[in-house]
């Protein structure tokens, strides 16, 4: 079995499964990370996504470890650089992560340039294939917020300044392509408009937003933008932080080492979006678990296969802390969801639309 590829650009082919590294250095030690990455690579996964702020929950002592572990793996295993596609992200403004350039306070050109150089060092590489803005510099509703509130808008760094910094990095050979993340239809179209008459136009390839059975907001506005502008979605959180496995609502409850149990009260971004106490979330998850069992597949397989089925999604950004979880994800490549299953899924979605935005 080999994971198929998707051609993002003429010289950039990525596996349909992208290994997200945000647990490396927190939930996973380096030896565990080594085993996971080797298994993924041997299965044909060539696409690996990280971020300067990883692992999560983010803290001063572990900052940058996910990138470091990824770089150490390539070096220790003598992985040819041209055989892997490395994606990472620059941290947006945050008042909490003071250990990252003082906050960071903004996503200006100085911060972007410094972030790129630091990521290159941690990854032990000369270039990054896909460099992404982790979240916008301006206010946008994120991580559980459902509606835009104009009173929350604040002065933000012009997008043109950000594009200029990214263009300079491309010209200097530090990054190859650009991606956005946690963006809105306005943000995506504004970036594309500003880049349209420059050499950056063909360089903006992707948007990395959440997409799963509990969060299909992408389809409301961004899907049309991406379709017409030929921007591919990198869908993160396909398992809704593990909730769609059904483990948190099983009779015995999730195991103690499940992420939302380990980090309870310490991971605000996750807990604000994936609310285990919400009866609507529970009802929706149990319905999807029922559908999976009725067709003889695991709830996790149903969740990931559904995301892979989307025509605009280039790659699914998944996480795994154990080898058996990774193997289950890889095996999803061979699962085809019949029309009847999709109809049942859409019926549940109509009753419980997007409870985890």
UniProtKB/TrEMBL annotation:
<dbReference type="InterPro" id="IPR036812">
    <property type="entry name" value="NAD(P)_OxRdtase_dom_sf"/>
</dbReference>
<feature type="domain" description="NADP-dependent oxidoreductase">
    <location>
        <begin position="16"/>
        <end position="348"/>
    </location>
</feature>
<dbReference type="Pfam" id="PF00248">
    <property type="entry name" value="Aldo_ket_red"/>
</dbReference>
<protein>
    <recommendedName>
        <fullName>NADP-dependent oxidoreductase domain-containing protein</fullName>
    </recommendedName>
</protein>
<dbReference type="InterPro" id="IPR023210">
    <property type="entry name" value="NADP_OxRdtase_dom"/>
</dbReference>
<dbReference type="GO" id="GO:0016491">
    <property type="term" value="F:oxidoreductase activity"/>
</dbReference>
<dbReference type="InterPro" id="IPR020471">
    <property type="entry name" value="AKR"/>
</dbReference>
